[in-house]
Amino acid sequence: QVQLVESGGGLVQAGGSLTLSCTASGVNNPYVMSWYRQAPGKSREVVATMTRTGTSTYANFAEGRFTISRDNNRNTVSLQMHDLKPEDTAVYYCSLRQTALRNPNWGQGTQVTVSS
């Protein structure tokens, strides 16, 4: 059974930084690991993804401020976030796909709140 556990969320002032971490169990070196977020009243949106070979992609709002990284040996993925803005306030979810065709697995989410 695949499980993902996120940590690292919290309250930070605008301009500050946070690092989110996610540990996956019940899976071995998944095809892609990602971070999504969902703000109140909005749809869930992708923040950043990284394949097992290290190819990363970012949403426009994350480019230049957020950095995704993963440790394939430990099945972990992290998201470093800098220069945070109030509009970054959301629940952040870790996700993975074991293969390109499998449905994604999700963590429970971690709240990030950025105060102005």
Task: Describe the structure in your own words.
This protein has about 120 residues and is mainly beta. Helices cover about 0% and strands about 55% of the residues. The chain has strands at about 5, 10-15, 20-25, 30-40, 45-50, 55-60, 65-70, 75-80, 90-95, 105, 110-115. The strands form 2 sheets. Strands 2, 4, 5, 6, 9, 10 and 11 form a 7-stranded mixed β-sheet that branches. The chain is globular and about 40 Å long.
Task: Provide the descriptors you would attach to this structure in a database record.
mainly beta, 4-stranded antiparallel sheet
Can you lay out the helices and strands and say which pair or pack?
Layout: E1 3-7, E2 10-13, E3 18-25, E4 32-38, E5 45-51, E6 56-58, E7 66-71, E8 76-81, E9 90-97, E10 105-106, E11 110-115
Parallel strand pairs: 2-11
Antiparallel strand pairs: 1-3, 3-8, 4-5, 4-9, 5-6, 7-8, 9-10, 9-11
Task: Please give the share of residues in helix.
Answer: under 10%
Please describe the biggest sheet, giving its number of strands, its sense, and whether it closes into a barrel. 7 strands, mixed
**Rounded average pLDDT:** 96
Helix count, DSSP H or I runs of 4 or more residues: 0
In short:
0% of the residues lie in helices and 53% in strands.
